[in-house]
Structures are given as structure tokens and as C-alpha cells.
């Protein structure tokens, strides 16, 4: 049931009513946040996208409206005409709190059943229920705000890139399955039974082709797809801000992107990002923070103490170094008094990162306490303390193993300790850093070959070019990531535009000319016809909006997200389809759902 | 092979060089459009996105550069440093024609094989070759211009809608198969073997849910998908400008959209669209133009002459009227002398629209000529002439049949004649019209039931509401299309927000409550919780850009389009995939490609 507007026009949004409108006849429309009948008056809090306005109905204002207003319930949609007046008892907690509307007539546009979730800020309801009734969840002002921020962010990005002569260009959604990537979502073709399109994991190849075409500066805000098992903050479809430029080197790409980031955080969040954004080579990030996306809002850097323990009597340390590994430490400031149980838990924690154990040295006021103290002379122990950079009151935490294990486990331990010690509580810093000089390759043990760390079209650094064939592991790439507070916001590279470099690159990846063409044929073909020097970057928009709106849940910044099983409890996608549809596509179901 | 930039920076685009830059040292980069060696000088036309610049190399300018410049070929990518000077022999045909660059150094950034298609305006190459080498086809300045227009159009639309408080919101690409629509593209689910996502045909349901959520004003420029057999100017993936508003009626939607259209055509094309845009009810459009997307740039309206022939002796006319049909005519001005062969061909033409034949009356200076003259008295013939609105020198063309056949065939004949008679030659008019008052239903003979002409959530007109159950065929809808020069640019409607109206609507469509819920469950569920009055529109962006860029080929406004078989000759999508991928999805191929 419901009345219709019948030509009635809204004159103002609820949340926009202010003292300057007092005395005006206004028409507002929205949802009933709550209704109270108090002392012969009906008070309705009316909600729209802009906020909440109090409307008061009374016998003396309009008897008919008063009676009808008393019938409304939460989430009814109503339209009210009346005069805006000074509010009797002002509410300074809301922007409209100085005024109220005297309800002279009311129209009930639609009714509502009792909603299964409360429409209020910071709701603590089960995620499944929130997703099933997403349209109600999205009525919550804090949820709406996040999507308003998303709109603004996309708008600022587009404005900036347009001003800087980037053209937004659409690339295909129905494309070819990508080699060397994550798992593709496939789309069966009806015209070519037995063949499939793939949904794009990124427009990488297409944006490079657009550079070959001479479009010079391209961008796109675009959906991308990966059919991977979902971890927290991963969604099967996600939105990428994709950028590519011609006739540039890394400095050019970084420069324009720094201005983009500055503009974005200023306009949407009011934050001044200081330029230039600092840079850190990959090797330094790994050595100091055990991560290629270091959180620089706090110190607790990793220190290599191998040099001072390499000749010690403690076989665990000595053995690790002799096997080509290292011994490294982080210092938990003021934690010398940490209880044994807690320290043991940290030991368990590093084991999940393949460390065999965690050695510790507590520098208490009354002397050193450490289970490994007995293996060291006083001088050796002093050297360890000095090399770790610890002082009285601190706790030194040490891992000895292969470099990879040491760095990864101490990097994770560093973040874990920051959480436990609440080092980032009330920290409002936005700490950006470019990570540069990534390795060109990483060794894939399963396939027993080098694979591209970024992708096979990434330009090696000029000074490492001579190592492409002789020592691929040492080759660094013209690749860069932008990291904010320990999260990767985006990454990119300068691409190879010289065919001889590209051939060497494929050689290092173990491809023959034929197998390279089989995989990347149309891009390689295009590169025979004058590719310009080019490079670019891609950002995760969802991730950016999470920062801008202050949420740690990716689902909060997506209007209709999927759950952890890549399903939508609201629409019930994915779902069964008709036999006829499958017949037309020339496919058949061989395995039924067993979940 | 190729040199690298090595820090060299472009200082200006080729196409931007003007007399004001004379005397400056400039660095330009781009593609060699052509190279000539004339009288001891090498002339290179260098091309980038902004245009072409002449560069001259000579022994006396720089010998090394001169020699190297002589090595370059078409489509090589080069960088040149030099001084901009006044051009010896100005070329007023291009914007940079007053200047030229004295090439003091040259770097060959990459070489090019001889391209398989010419890089020049208005190329007349086979479409398949153009699509296979799309990256080269897109180097042509006229192709680039169209995609620049596309970028601008999307930007203007976004700016306007943002200013008018619309929020751009993304809706899912992986969603549920739609009932009652075209054929869906399906995406097999790995997490739920045997189940499928569908790619959206439009975000219709999601945008309505966003209105239920209270977002008030939504838009999105978004890819949509239909797996239909492709006709000219159809693509399997197309881009929609999707808009929805709350607390509005039709006038509100039309008003804001007229301003959007005005702004778009003004900013991108420099055309003043006069507001308000005229409106025409569906019935009038059909009666006068035999089409719900009439081209109003010329007259040649259809006239109903049933009244004056209903009692005549010509059984074809009389019979058609007695069977409930009609006799209608169009007048080809000044065509009384059209040859018999040509007229016969028009007769063949209307037969493809199921007309049984085409009667004609030629009003020659020396009297009437018509094969059907013998069936009519002089008075009857004069009545026909008068009812048709013909004058001496004209040719009357008449079809008698069921209304539907008469209108459709005469509507098509009208357009065909306009083409043959070149009525629109040199016509630069942009003739917009809103078609309103669409029928709510159309009868589907195959299913023997009424189906929604727009969609099942379209609001019937208030004054026709009482006919929903008794006479659905007569019910008109609050639906509207925007038509430009005979092409539909977009369409929309006010949606039903009252549950009782929605129930009657489903009744008229032959759904039980259960079957309606099965198909539209989550939208109906959402509507139980206070839906606001709302309505919207969706435009085809590709179609709009075709108008803005003056092309009749949809492929020209899409960077990487598919061919008529929904395939991409460049990427070779769709393609075969690994057995392993199919196994993971729990599907198997049953029919192999037989094309």
C-alpha cells in the first residue's frame, strides 16, 4: 500500500534544514527513524541521505495530520508539508538540531514491516544478515557515508587525470584467458561452443596496446576479476584505477601519481600529504621491516646481528649463519618485564612463519635475563645488545634461520607487537612510501624456474641489464609500489619497449620464442610496429576508499559485496540455470555442489 | 631494438607547436608519419595524439642527426631535440603548419616493420584486418578523435550528475541470471560447482535497491552484457549510463535529463539543444511515423485514409478495414514521375515488413496514374488524395492490412524513401523527442500472455490503473524514451513502489504470488521495507558517442570491439582453455565448435 506523490515536490532535504530556513513552508520526504507520542504531540525523526530532521505534529497544528502521523512506524516512507520553526529543545548533537518542522500535512508513501536489522550507526549485527538485507544495511548513515566517500574519491581521481590529459578508455570485459596470472573467471561462448572468454584480471595488455596506438595517457576505473580463494579484504570482483603513460620514465610516473595522491587525500579527507613521498628500495624495506609494504608509523626496525654472533658458541646462531642464513633482532621497547607466557606466545607466533624458535634477552634494571645467556660471554652479550640497539628496560627478540624466514617472521612479529603494545592507538598519521628497485624475478620452486615478480613486460634496471642472462636473481626492475601505513595501495612499472630486451627477458623466464608468442602473441606482434617507451601503475580503489573512510573491512566500501565463499546472500548468486542455457553453450555439469 | 629515454623529457606535444614557440629549444616524441629526402634535407612528419609536426634535418643543422634521420621509416618512434623556426613553405592545412623544428639530435626509441594497414584518416581497409591490428587502426587520427570524444562525453556526464547530487555507485558484475530478459552470459562458479553467476544485462534491480537504501540519486557508467545474435551496431558488451532518482515523478526525471542532454551536446559538440525537448505520445508516434523512435527531421507523415475508402469497391482496402485493420498512406513529394521499376522495388521493400503489397497513385501534371484507379470513382479518388495530403507532382503510397503491419511497413518505407530521395543530405539537425505513454504490456503470441513492454516494475499511468485487470492492452505506462534523429538514445520509467499495484501488475503478467517471488524475490522482499517513489533512465553510451562523433559504426567508438560473431580477431577471444580449469569448475564440453 502507499500513496503517490501526485505532483508533490520535495523542496529541501531533511538534513539540510537550518535556522536560515525558519519561517519557510517546506516539503520534506524520507524514512521514519523513530516516532514518539509525547504529551499530546507526535514527534517524528525523518531521515534522508543528508541527515535527520525532527517533525512535530499536534492537534493544534493540524488535527488530521496529527492523527495520521500517529499511525506511522519505523522505516515508513512519508512526505510532510509544514513550516520550519525554531526547535523548542535544541539538540546540538545533530546539524538540524536548532530547528523542527511543524507537520501540517502528511502523506504515507509506503509502509514498512519491522526491519530485521536496526537502522543505526555502527551496527553490530551478524555479517550474513547484513549481507542478506544489504538494502537495509545500506540505510545506516555510516554505511552511506563510506559510499559517498567512494563516489567522491572516484570523482577527484577522474578530475585530476582529466586535467592532466589522461583519457579514460574502456577495455574489454570479455577477453582471453591470461597466462601467468591468478585463476580466471571463464565465460562460455555460445557462438564458439567449447571456447571461453575470460573476465580480465587487469587491463594490463590492453593498456599497453593503447600506448602502442599513441593515446599517450590512459586511465580507467574498472572492475577486475580473480577467482581465488578469498582471504579477508579480498573480493572476487574489485575495482582498479588503471593508469598508463607514454614517453616517460619512472620519475615522470611517480611525479604525476604523487600529485594525484596529494589531491585525493586533500579533497576527500582534508589531509596534507607532503611531497615528494619518500622512497625506499625493496632491499632496505625487507632488511629493516621484513616486508615490501612496511608500516613506517613506528620504528622497531630489524637489526642484523650476524656479525657479532657468527663466532659464538651458540650453535643455533652459528649454524644458521654458516648455512648462509642470518641472525636478526627486533627490540620491544620497555618490555623487559613481559611475562614468560606472553613471550612464549610470541615464539609460537613466529613459528607460523616457519621460524624454528624465538630467542629473547630481557634487559631488566637488575641485569640481563635470557634463556640463551649461558651461551655467550659478557662481551658477546654486550655486542648483541649494542647491535640490536636495545637499552635497559627493553626486550630483544631474535630469530636465526635462512634470510627469508628470519625477515618474514620478524616482520610479522614487529606488526604483532605493535598491535599488542597498542603503538598505533590514536595514531592518525598517513605514512606513504614508494618501494622501488624490486627484484625482477622470483624463483618458483614448484616450476623450478624464475617467474616475473611484477610481470614479464617490466623493464629491468639499466645497470642490471647485463645480469639478465648470467644472474637473473640479482636483476632489479623499474617497478614501484605505493605503500600507506603498511598496506599496498598500488603498484606499477616501466615496461620493456625494446624487442631485444624483451627477448632476453623471455629467455630468463625459460620461454622459447615460440612459447612466448603462444602466450603473449598479440602484444608481441603489436610491439613490432613501434611501441613508445611507456609505464604505468594500478591502484586498488577499494583499498584506497578503506583508508579514506577509515574502515578495515573491504565489504564496507562496496555496495553489494560477496561473502567469503564468493556468494551473495541477497541475490543468491551464483545459482542454478536452465538446462537449455547450458545446451546452448555446449557445456554440461559434471560435479555438483557438495557444500 | 631501440634506444631508451635515459632521462630525456618531452617538452611539448607535436600537435601543440605554434608560432608563439618559435625560437625555443623543444623536445618532441612521436611516430614517423612519413619521411622524405629532398634536396639534401630530410623531412620527417612526426605524429602524436595532438597532431603532426614537420621536422627538418640537414647537414648544416647537425650532420649526425641528419644521417640518422635518413634511416628512419614510417611508424618508427623517435625523439628529436631542436629549435622551432618559422616554416619555409607554410602549410595552412594543419594547425602546426606555420612552424617546423630544426632537428639537432635524434634518438630512435623503437623501430617498426611496415604496418599492414595505412595510418591515415578515413581508411578503407577490410574490417577484419582493422580489428586484427586494432592497435594500428587506433593510430589513425579520426579513430583517436572518436575515443577522445567518448572520454569527454563520459566526463561531462559525470560532472553534470555530480553537480546535481547524483552518486556514482558500482553494482556487481557477478550476479544472478535475470528472468524475463535477453540471454545472459554465464560464469561458472568454482566454489559452487553446478551453479553460475550471470553478467548483468543492466543494473536495474540493484539501482532500485539503492533507492530502497535511501541513496536518493544514483548513477553509473557501466558495462552491460547480452548474449544475443549480433546485428549491426550491437555489441555483446556495451556501456550504459544508468540513472535513478527517489521522490520524483516523470516530470522531475525528464527535467534533469533534458539539462544533462543539453549540457552534453553543448560541451562536446557545441550544439544548442532547445529545452524543453518536445514530447510525443507513443500512439501518435506510431500513427504518424509508424515507429516509436520517429525521425522528425523530415515530414512524410503517415495518414489514415480508412475513413474515405471504407465503403469503396476495392476489396483489398475494404477487406482490411472490415478485418479490423486500416488503410494508410504516405506521400513522396514530387515523385509522381518515379519509374515503374523503382516503385515495384518499394513494393518488394514493404513485403519484408509483412505487407501484402503497396498500392500507389501518381498525381502527374497530366492526370492520375495508378493501377488501382479503376476501383475508385473520381470522387473517391479525390477523397483519397485529400486524405493523404498529396498535391500534383506527388506519389501516394498505400498499405492496407492489420494496423501493426500497415504502420510498421509504412514507417520503414518512410525511412527508405528519405534515404533514396536524400532528404537528409547535408542535414545537421539534432532533432530530439521524448516518446511517452508507452503501452504497459505487449502480447507475446509464443507464450500466449502479456509481457511487460518496459519491465515488470514500471508504473502504470494513474488514469489507466483501473484497467490493469480488465483490459491490460489499454494500460499506458509512466515510461519514456529519448529519441534523436530516429535512434533511441535511452529510456526509462517511474517504478511501482506500492505493493498492491505491484501485485496487480504481476497478476496481469500471469504470475502467481509464488512465481513472482521466485523470479524477483529479493526485490519484492526489499519493497516490504519502505521503498520510496522512484524512477530513472538508462542511456546507451556507445549510441550517444556515435552521434557526438558522427559515425554510424558502433565499432568506431569502442577501443577494442568484437566482430559480428562476438569474437576479437586481435586477442583471439574466445579461446580454448585448459582441461584443469574446466575440472575445477565442474563442467565439461559437450559440443565442439562447428564453424
UniProtKB/TrEMBL annotation, chains A, B:
A single MF term (Gene Ontology): catalytic activity, acting on a protein
One Pfam family it belongs to: tRNA-synt_2
Coiled coil: none
Protein name (Swiss-Prot/TrEMBL): Aspartate--tRNA ligase
Protein residues bound to L-aspartate: 180, 226, 454, 495
Protein family according to the UniProt entry: Belongs to the class-II aminoacyl-tRNA synthetase family. Type 1 subfamily.
Binding site for ATP: 226-228, 235, 488, 540-543
Keyword Cytoplasm: yes
Chain spans, region Aspartate: 204-207
A single GO BP: aspartyl-tRNA aminoacylation
Cell location: Cytoplasm
HAMAP family: Asp_tRNA_synth_type1 (MF_00044)
Domain Aminoacyl-transfer RNA synthetases class-II family profile: 147-561
